[in-house]
Batch of 4 targets.
Target 1
Amino acid sequence: MNTQTKIALVTGGSRGLGKNSALKIAQKGLDVIITYRSNKEEADKVVEEVQALGRKAIAYQLNTKDIKSFDAFVKTVGDHLEENTGSRNIDFLVNNAGTALYAPISEVTEEQLDDVVDIHFKGVFFLTQKFLPFINDGGGIVNVSSGLARFALPGSSVYGSIKAGVEMLTKYMAKELGSRKIRANVVAPGAIETDFGGGRTRDDKQVNDTISSITALGRAGLPDDIGGVVAFLCTEDSGWVNGQRIEASGGMFL
C-alpha cells in the first residue's frame, strides 16, 4: 500500500455481497481490508483474488457483535497501515457484515432481537464511531441496508426495522460529517442469491420463483448486481451523492 492509493475497509468481506464489493472496489484501484467472522480460509481466498487484481489486501477476524473488541481491532488495523503506508487512516468504511433473522413477531425472542440490534445497529454505530478519527477527510461511509426497510414481508419485522434505523442513522452521519467532506450513503439490496439466511433465496425454488415474479427484471439478484454499486460509492464519480439510499433490487415491488 502506498500513500496515494485509497483504502477501503469492508466488514463481512469473506463471502457474498461483501466479497463481491471488495473485488469491485479493488477493480476501481483501491486497496482493501476485509473482515471475517469465522471463515479465515474463505477470507484468505478473497485476499488472493484482490492481489491478483494488482491491489493490496489483508483480512482480519472481527465479530461486529463484540463491540468491546473494536478498540483493539482499530489499533491492529492502524498499526498495519502505519507500518505500510505511514498513516493510520482509511478512506472508506463499508459496514456490510450481518446475519438474517426470519421469525414472526409472535415468536421473536429477546435474545434474537438483541442479536440483530447488536450486529446491525450497535455494531455499525460504534465501529463507525471508533474509525471516525481514522477516516480521511473527503472519504466515505457505505452502510448496507435491505429492501426490507422499504417493504414488509412477514417474518422480517426485526431485521427490516433495524435496517430502517440504519438508513436514518446514515442521514445523521452525512449531516454531522459533512464539514469533513465525508459522505455517508446506503446501499439497499433486494433478495440476493447468497449464503445469507441459510441460502434460502438461492436454494429454495419457491422463494426464488416468488421473488422473480415480483421483480421487474424477472429474477432474484446476484452478488455481482450489488458490489459495483458499493464500489461506485467509494469513488470520486459519486462525490456529490450524500445521505442517499440506493436500492439495488431489480425493481422489487414497484
Note: The chain has one domain: 7-248.
Target 2
Amino acid sequence: MNFATRAIRAGQQPDPATGSIIVPIYQTVNFVFQGVGKPSAFEYSRSANPTRRAFEQCLASLEEGQYGLAFSSGMAAIDAALSILKPGDQVVVSENLYGGTYRLFESVWKPRGVQFSYVDGTRPSAFAEAIRPATRMVWIETPANPLLQLVDVRAVTAIAHKQGAVLVADNTFASPFFQRPLTQGVDIVVHSATKYICGHSDVVAGAIVVNDQPLFEKLAFYQNAVGAVAGPFDSWLGLRGLKTLAVRMKQHERNAQRIAEWLVADGRAAGILYPGLASHPQHELARVQMDGFGAIVTVRLRGGLAAVERFIDGLEVFLFAESLGGVESLVCHPWTMSHGAMSKQDKDKIGITEGTLRLSIGIEDADDLIADLDKALARV
C-alpha cells in the first residue's frame, strides 16, 4: 500500500467486537487475566494499550520501520532515545537543533555524565572530526529548527556506523510524508508528534520508530519503566491526525512555497530561509533526500526586536504562539520562545538573531496569508 492508504489503514483493522471501522478509545487502566500467570494480550495500559498500539503500528508503517513507540511528548521520546547511554559516553550533535532538546542535553543528561559535542551539521566532515573512542551516539535534526539547515543523512550515517555509534534523527519538521530517515540508514527516528503527526494543535505526544529489535526492546523497557506513554485518547487523536497527514502536508507545502517566493520577491525581509527556494544553500540536497520541502519558512527582519514587535502587532490571520505543524498558521520568535533556553552566545553562534521569525505555514487560503504578511511587513 502507498503512503496515503497506509495512513488510513495500517494498524487499524475494524474492531472485532463491534465492526467499528475506527479504532476505539480503550480508556482503561487494566485488562482481565485469564488465570494466575496468564495475562491477556494486554495487561496494564502503561505497558501497552490497544489504541496506542494501533497508533504505534501506523507510525512505524509510515516511517517504513518495524517498531513504533508513542510517548506523552516529543521531549519524552527524546529522553527515551538517550536512555541507551551511560556516564562517560559522548554524543556528537548537529548544533542547530530545537532549544528544548539542547536544554535536555545540557541540564539533564550532561549532569548525569553524558558528554555532548556540537558541530556544524551542514558539514559531514565535522561529525567525523568530533568522533572520539567514547562516541556512542550521533544526533541530527534535519531540517533544523529554526534555520532549516539540512544534514546529509547518508554521509553522516556512514560516519556514525563506522564508529559503531547509534544515529538518531529528529524528523519532526519533515514528517514521514516528506522524509523517512530509516531508509537512509538512521537507527532511531524521533518525532514531536504534537506537530505534523497529530496536526491539529490539540494533543501533546511524541514518537520513536526503529527497525532493530534489540534496540526496540531497550527503548520499550525504558518507556514502560518510566511511564511517559501516550494515553488512549491522545493516541486516538494521533490516529485521526495520521489519516489526513498526506493531504495536509501537500497543502502545507504548496502554501509555504508560494509564501517563500512572495517574500523573496517582496524584498522587505532581510533574509528568507526555505529549502524549496533555489537560493537555499542546500536546496539540491533537499531535492535528493526529501520528497518535499516542508512547511516552515524562516525570515529575518531588519530592525531586531523592535521590528519583530511591530510585525507581530500587525498580524491577524497568523497567530503568535509556540509550537508548529497545526492546520493554522503560527509565528514563533525563536530568540525568546523555542530557543529561549540557549544563551545569547549560543544563539549568536548558530545564527539565531533577535530579528529571526519562524513561520509555521498552515493550510488556510494562501492569498489571505500573504495579505496578512503584507500588512504586517508594512509596519516594520
Note: The two ends are 49 Å apart (CA to CA).
Target 3
Amino acid sequence: MYANPVAYIFSCIFVIFAHSAMLVNIWFNGNFSETRDIAVLGAAVIILDIAFFVVILFFKQMSYVLDFLLILILNMSVIFQSCFICKFNIKHYITCIICLAASKCGYILCKNHKILQSNKKYIYGGIGLLLLLVLIVYFAKHDMWIRIGSFTLQPSEFIKPLFVLACATSIADQQKKHKILIFNVVYENIALFCIMAAICLVQVKSHDYGSLPTFISIYCVGFILRICYPKAKFSKKKLVAVIAIIVVFLLIGLKYAPEYVQHRLHVDIWSDKTGDGYQQSQALIAIANGGWFGVGPGRGYLSNIFAYDNDIVFATVSEEWGLLFALMMVLTILIITAVPLINPTRSYYHATMSSCICAAFIVQMALNIFGSCNLIPFTGVTIPFISSGGSSLLVSGFMTGMLTAGQSPVFNEHRSKSKSKSKKQEEAVPAWRWKE
C-alpha cells in the first residue's frame, strides 16, 4: 500500500463526519414519521463507509482520493434518495454497493493499457453488439430499458465505457499513418469516426437524443487528444476545418430534428406549465422555494412530480436541502473529475481515457442541471452518482474505477531496484536491444 496512513485516517474521519452531519440534519429537520427509519438509514450509511474503507486496503494503489470521493458522493445520494420517500431506500442502497464493486472492477480491468490496446477489436465488437441490442429492445418494446424485477437496465449506458476505451489512444498508434490519395490518415481514426456515426444513427433511431451530447463530448475530447499528441505535426487549418464540419452537422441536426424535439427547443415553460414545460416550471419553483438552506429533508413538494429522483434530481435536492448544499454536491463531482486531470497519468492512453470520462461526467451533469433550470432544452439525462437508476450508477462507478486505474503507475515499481543490479542488467543486454 502506498497511501499515507495519516491522510488515510483523516479522510475516513472526514467522510464519516460529513455523512453524520447530514444524518443529524435529518434528525432535527427531517419529515420521517418514525425514528427507527432514521436509525436504519444512519446505520446503513456508516456501516457502508467503514466496510468500504477496509475493502480498499486490499487494492494496491498510489492514492485513494477517488475512492474516498466516490463513497462520499454515493452515501450522500443514499441519504438524498431516502429522504425523498421518507424511509430507507434499500433499492438505491443496493445499487450504490454494486456501483462501488463496479469501480474496483474498472480499476482492475483498465490498469494495463497495453492489454487494452491489443484487444481493441473486442472493444469495437462490444460496442457493435450493444448497439444491436439497443435497436432490438427499442423495436420490440418501443422502450429503452430492460427490466429485471424491480431493477431496470439501459443498454446504451454500457456503451459509454467501451466508447471511451475505443477513443483512448497512444502516441505510437497515431504515428501509424497510411497514404490514401493525397492524405495521410490513421486507420484507427477512420474506424472511430464510423463508430461515432453508428452511435448517432442508433440513438436518433431509438429517439434517445438526451445521451447524444455525452457521446459527442467523449468523441470530441478523444479526437482532439489524438491529433494533438506530443510532437504531432497537424495543420491548424485542418483542425479549424474539422470544427467547422462538426458545427455544420450540428446545425443540420437541429434544423431537421423531429417535431417533438423542435417543440422542446422552443417551448415557453411558463405558457405551457401543464404540458412540456411542467417539469421545468415545477423545478424552478422548487429551487426558489428551497432557497439557500432548503425546506427540510423529506418536506419538499417536488417529490410528487414525475422523475423527481433522476431527471430533475438537482431541483429536488435544492428544494429539500437548499441551493448551498446542492452546489456542494456539484462541487464534489467536479473534484472527482479534476483529480485525474491535475495528477500525472501513467500513460498517454490513460490520459486520453481520463479526459474522455471527465468530459462525459461534466456534460451529463450540466445537461441535467441546466435543463432543470430552463437554461437549455430539457433532456432528461441523469446526474452521475446522484440520480436513481441501475445502469447509470453502475457505469458511473465503473468509469470512476477507470479514472483510478490511470492514477496508479504500477509499471514504475521496478525503478526502485538497486543501482548495482541495474548496471548488471544493462551490461547483460545488447545495445541493439535498448534501441528497440
Note: The two ends are 33 Å apart (CA to CA).
Target 4
Amino acid sequence: MNGAFFGKLFQKKDQAFAYAMIGLLFILFSAMVFYVGYSNEEKETLLMKTEAERAFNSIYMALTENPTTDKATSLMNEEGVIGIGIYSSAGRLVRWLGNVPFVFPYDDFQTETAAGTQSAAYGMYRFNRSSGILQYMRMARLSIDIDAGSLQIDTAGQLKTDLNFPEVLYVVMDAGSYAKALTRIWMLAGAAETLLIVVFFIFVRMYLNNVRYREMLTRQESLVSLGAAARTLAHEIKNPLSAMTIQVALLKKVLPEQYSGELAVVDQEIGRLTQLTNKVSDFLRNPVGNPQLIEVRSFIEGLFSLFALPVRFTGDSLSRAYIEFDPDRARSVFENLLKNAMESCTGRDPEVEVEITSGRRGMVSISVLDRGDGLPEGSDQKKVFDPFFTTKIHGSGIGLAITRQFLKARNGTIELSAREGGGTRAEVTLPAVPEKFAAVILAAGHVGSAE
C-alpha cells in the first residue's frame, strides 16, 4: 500500500459522495415539485367542492322561495349546473331540478369511498376529465317536520315508520374550469421538473468538467516536474555516455578479438541509452519544429525498409494526400507506430497494414493496423500515452507520449482502438493540405521526406 493508492481511494470516495449528494438533492427537489403540484390540486379540489356546495345552496334556496323554478333554472344556467337532487336514505329521489337520475348512483361513489380518499360526510366527487362533468354528493343535514301521530313503537321498542328521511345531496355540473386548472397545475409541474433535470444535468456536467480539469492540472504539474527532472537527467547522462563511447572505441582497438562480443553488448546498451536520452530531449523541446509539405503515402513507404517483416497499404488507401509537418517529427511519429505494430506479438507475423483515408472537415486519417495481441485491459488503456508507461520488457514508454505531443502541436490527434477479429488500430488525424495548395508548395521546392 502506498500514498498513490490511498489518494485514488479517497478520490473515488469523494466522487461517490458528490454523486450521492447530487442524487439526493435531485430527489428532494423533485419531491418538492410534486408536493407543490399535489397541494395545488388539493386546493383546486376544495375550491371545486365549495363551488358545488354554493351552487346547490343557491339553487335550492331559489327553488324553495319560488316553486315555479324560473329563478332556480336561471341560476343553474349561470352556475353551469346540469341538475341537483335530494335523495332519501333508500336512494329514492325526493326533490330535484334539471337532469339527475331517479335512483341515487351509490355504486359510482363506492370505489372512491373504498379507496379511503374521500368522506361522504364532507363531500365526495367523481370527475370525468374527457367530458368535464362533475358529480358531487354529501350526506344531507336538512331539518324536517314529522307528525308524531303517525309514528308507532313495536314490542321491541323500535320505531316503526314508512318514512324515508332526506339524506343525500347530489349535484351534476360542468367543471371545465376545474379540468383546465388541473391541466395547468401539472403542466407547470412538468415544466418545473424538466427545468430541474436540465439544471442538474448542467450541474453534473460542470462537476465532471471540474474533475477532468483537476486531473489535467495534476497531470500537467506532474509533467512539468517530470520535464525539469528529465531535462537535467538527460543532460547529466549524455556526458558519461560520450566518454563511454570513446572508451569502448579504444577498447575495440586494443583488446583481443575474443572480447568483441562483450564489447558489442556494451556498445549496444550505450546506444540504447543514447537513443532514450534523445527521445526525452525530443519530448521536452519545441514539438512544432520546421513544418514542410509531406506526401503521406510516399513518406510512410520510405519507412517500410526499416522493418524485417512486410508492411503494406490497404486497398482503399488514398494514392495521394498531403500534410504540413516537420519531417523529423513525422518520421518519429510513424516509425514509432510501425515499430509498436511490429512488436505487438511474438512468434508470428502481426500483419501490419497502413490505411490512408479522407477524414471529415478537411482532415486526413492515417491508421496503422495490426493483428497482434491487442491493447492492455483495464485501466492500463488510459495510461498508454503517459510518459514512461510501458507494458514491454525492453520498452521506455516515451514513444506514444512524444507522438501525441508532436501531433497535438499540429492540431492533430491519435486514438488507439481494438480491431474486430483481434489486433489494434492506431489512427492519426491531421489537417490535410488541398492539392491545389500542395502544387504551389511543390513548385517552390519545400517538400519533406523520410530520409
Note: Residues 1-7, 143-151, 156-164 have pLDDT under 50 and may be disordered.
